[in-house]
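job 3f2a | input accepted
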Amino acid sequence: MADSIALEHEASHPALQHHFENLEQQREAASLGMWVFLVTEIMFFGAMFFAYTLYRTKFPLEFASASNHLSLPLGTINTVVLILSSFTMALAVYSAQTGKRRNQVVCLALTILLGLTFLAIKAVEYHDKYVDHLIPGRLIPGRPFDASGVHLLPGAAKQHVEMFYWIYFAMTGMHAVHMIIGVGLLSVILFFAARGKYGPEYHNPVEISGLYWHFVDIIWIFLFPLLYLLGRHLEHGG
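job 3f2a | predicted structure (238 res):
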């Protein structure tokens, strides 16, 4: 009797789409859809990681030289920022599941703020590359790529350093685009959360948005050591 009443209540829930029997079925379908999407994203980023591996193997000294020119402090700060954002995102999901509206709103706002902080720091890094003439190719009129400011390791060829920056901007640029999408998505979620749309009965949008956010954070966890740390010990002759 209680189960039938609960099902009838779910069937009348405004968030339940007509082609689902109940909210649980709708939640499972949405979660499955997000996981399928993330698998395609893994293949997308996997191709870039594969390209990085190939060229890093071919030009190890040049890649190490270019990597050493990146700002380790800024990269480290951004890593900490994203780890914190994953924590606040997890708290937002938990708050939605337990019906803590205020905590949910605060945690979502903090996650967005941390995401914007990451993007701001990345913009500073990009500006530094612009100042140092390290934008690859001739993408910036009048400012062609010039690796003369990069401290080359013994045996490294200047002409191969540019390949590192092509891959660096491709990988971090696509990651930044995903971060911007994530911030936009969470802004919409925050708007509805502030209106009390999500709670113990219906919180699936917060969950699947959290999955996306964690995925983007994990991608950076792989990018950081590959781009900023690998080969840095060679600078000191280690």
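job 3f2a | Residues 87 and 97 are 15 Å apart (CA to CA).
job 3f2a | closed
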